[in-house]
Write a structure and sequence with these properties.
binds zinc ion; 2 domains; single chain; 9 helices
């Protein structure tokens, strides 16, 4: 979880991008505070934002002495951030980028899904659902990953390319991955008969959804890997991403 840099609200440090995020989070929870109005998300602290933080603490968190402040990693922040569905286009680029920082292998399943291209995401959800229905425990290991992480994998010979479908981005560097790595959380990449069964089921579910599976590759079997497009499209996706990033 990527949080705020410092405190927001009454006697908080109130850095603009932190306030921006908290205002957005409060608006997402507005229905839990009957009679309260949504805040203008401008990143500027004021009596309305402080009042709403206080309300949230007393109504939702049932705090006896609400202090009107959200601390990084504190109870109020954790509660506000719960189930938060990010809509990147609504956030300022700065806040968005902070959200997408860090080790993407450690993101929640939800966040990994968010890092996928929207059309691809729908298909991946169908794949995950199909596998669950068959009794597997599918886990997304990687959705999107940064070019820096990609280079590390390349150097460790765990990937054959310096730019992969996992690295695709939208304008401003927002993740837009066209690839996903899915494992069964019980077996991961272990050398067991069950693991092989899972790979086979993954390959089938992927192809049922018109996706491409790394287990079909001849030179380098990438069992967990599923992608939206054939490898021949990698060049044009790379170009698109490069152009989007510089916009
Ligand atoms: Zn992959």
């Amino acid at each position: 979880m990527k949080g705020i840099l410092s405190s927001v609200g009454k006697s908080g440090k109130n850095i603009r991008e932190d306030v921006h995020l908290i205002q957005d989070l409060l608006n997402h929870k507005i229905k839990r505070m009957p009679g309260e109005k949504r805040l203008i998300v401008d990143g500027l602290i004021g009596p309305k934002t402080i009042k709403l933080i206080t309300k949230y603490q007393s109504i939702v968190l049932k705090m006896k002495k609400p202090d009107g402040r959200v601390d990084s990693g504190g109870k109020t922040f954790k509660s506000l951030y719960e189930n938060y569905k990010v809509t990147p286009h609504k956030l300022t680029p700065k806040v968005t980028m902070k959200y997408w920082e860090g080790d993407s292998a450690r993101w929640s399943q939800d966040k990994k899904l968010q890092s996928l291209n929207a059309q691809f995401r729908t298909k991946v959800k169908a794949v995950v659902k199909a596998l669950k229905n068959e009794g597997f425990k599918p886990k997304i290991f990687y959705g999107w990953r940064s070019v820096a992480v990609q280079l590390e994998l390349y150097n460790k010979k765990r990937s054959k390319v310096k730019f992969s479908f996992h690295n695709a981005t939208l304008k401003g560097g927002i993740p837009n991955s066209y690839a996903v790595d899915i494992i069964d959380s019980r077996y991961a990449w272990s050398d067991k008969p069950e693991t092989k069964k899972f790979w086979e089921a993954l390959g089938k579910a992927a192809k049922d959804n018109n996706l491409y599976w790394g287990g079909d590759w001849t030179s380098f079997k990438d069992w967990a890997h599923v992608q939206m497009h054939p490898n021949s499209k990698l060049k044009s996706i790379k170009l698109e991403s490069k152009q989007a990033e510089s916009m």
